[in-house]
Amino acid sequence: MISPASVKIDIGKFLKLAEEYPVADVRSPAEYNHGHIPGAINIPLFDDKQREIVGIKYKKEGRSKAIIKGIELSGPSMHSKLSDAIKIAEKRKILVHCWRGGMRSEAMAWLFSLGDIDTEVLEGGYKSYRHHILKSLSEKRKMIVLGGMTGSSKTHILNFLKKHGEQVIDLEGLANHRGSAFGSLGQPSQPSSEHFANLLFDEWKQINKDTPLWVEDESRNIGTVFMPDAFYNNMQETPTVILLMDLKTRLPRLVDEYSNYPPDLLKGAVMKISKRLGMDNTREAIGAIESGDFARATEITLKYYDKTYMFSIKRKRTRDIFYISTDTDDIETNALKVLEAAHKIKW
Questions:
Q1: CA–CA dist 104, 55 (Å, integer)
Q2: How confident is the model at residue 310 (pLDDT cuts 50, 70, 90)?
Q3: Is 23 in a helix, a strand, or coil?
Q4: pLDDT digit string, tens, across residues 10-56
Q5: CA-based torsion, 159, 181, 240, 329: positive or negative
Q6: Which pairs with CB-CB distance under 8 Å and at least 24 residues apart come from 8-11?
Q7: What is the DSSP string of 269-319?
Q8: 284: which residues sit within 8 A by CB, 6+ positions away?
Q9: Any idea where the domains of the chain sit in the sequence?
Q10: How far is 207 from 170, CA to CA, in rounded Å?
Q11: How far apart are CA 156 and CA 250, in angstroms?
Q12: Which of these is catalytic: 24, 94, 95, 98?
């Protein structure tokens, strides 16, 4: 007996069920690769070219002709799509979505039902998911921003805090970028800004709202990734702890982290900020890299980033800024200083 093809459910129930059951994203590979629900598996009704063909047919000749064309194009591969769904639906249940929760998800839900899989479709599709996560990420919550000039080991401090029970979201880790012109070195390719928000929400939804969340102070963009506007704006209004560490203390760790990269990559990074460094500084930094004097090259670029960061602090809208001076690069020592400062925050 064939069960009903699908039941449509709202985003709240969908995300709850997704903690237990697999999610099939039936949009095209290009749509999926640009941004998807973390953990979702792509079982596309159409490949990218087929989707384009059906879309053109719909615009020129209407819905019925587009449906017929879609069946013609996708029909030969229906068996493999059903096979893929059966493989991931170990509990004989699967959640399905397309862009708007329309024909594509309905068609695939019907197909999956033929394999005796209980199927539920996301009402409003991926579009409703995006609306939901952006609304959630705009919420004001207890959040502490850890600031400091480039090379202050902020990421290492946050990792220390996380290991010792603090709630932390590593924004640079999600963006696959360490923030500066050198930040892409040794990193995987960056997600789209859209998918970054999806990844951010995946951690955001697990945060205890009654306990402060730590994040690192960032520009609006981390490499090529732009943070959701409301989330970034909230960061500018939340309490901030800024670690003050002089250049000589920061220099050794930065030299150690970046000096092993090929000189051409380092010179390319310097050239990205050449207009802001100025011709003379750029020339000197490039020359220092070529001669193996990575400390000097790092020092030149740090002076630019220090000036930029101090200017950005003045633009923050929060009244709660705590400055912590340190003369050491020891992670545990600085983490404890940061925690001590955070205890002064009055929520």
A1: 12
A2: confident
A3: strand
A4: 999 999 999 999 999 999 999 999 999 999 999 999 999 999 999 99
A5: positive
A6: 8/101, 8/120, 8/121, 8/122, 8/123, 9/120, 9/121, 9/122, 9/123, 10/123, 10/124, 10/128, 11/122, 11/123, 11/124, 11/128, 11/129, 11/132
A7: HHHHTHHHH-HHHHHHHHHHHHTT-HHHHHHHHHHHHHHHHHHHHHT---S
A8: 296, 300
A9: 7-133, 139-342
A10: 13
A11: 13
A12: 98
Q: What is the pLDDT of residue 5?
A: 56
Query: Phi and psi at residue 244, in whole multiples of 5°?
Result: -100, 115
- Name the CA radius of gyration of the chain, rounded: 25
Q: For the domain with range 139-342, which CATH number is right: 3.30.390, 3.10.50, 1.10.10, 3.40.50? A: 3.40.50
CATH architecture for residues 7-133:
3-Layer(aba) Sandwich (3.40)
Residue type, 197: A
Comparing 7-133 with 139-342, is the CATH topology the same? no
Show the tokens assigned to 284. Answer: 């000197």
Distance of alpha carbon 205 from alpha carbon 208, whole angstroms: 8
Q: What DSSP element (H or E) covers 216?
A: strand 213-216
Distant-in-sequence, close-in-space partners of 14: CB < 8 Å, separation ≥ 6 = 95, 97, 120, 122, 123, 129
Q: What is the pLDDT of residue 268?
A: 94
How far apart CA 154 and CA 331 sit, in angstroms, is: 9
User: Are the beta carbons of 265 and 185 closer than 8 angstroms?
Assistant: yes
71 in helix, strand or coil? helix
Tell me the two tokens of residue 124.
Answer: 């409003």
Active site residue 98: yes
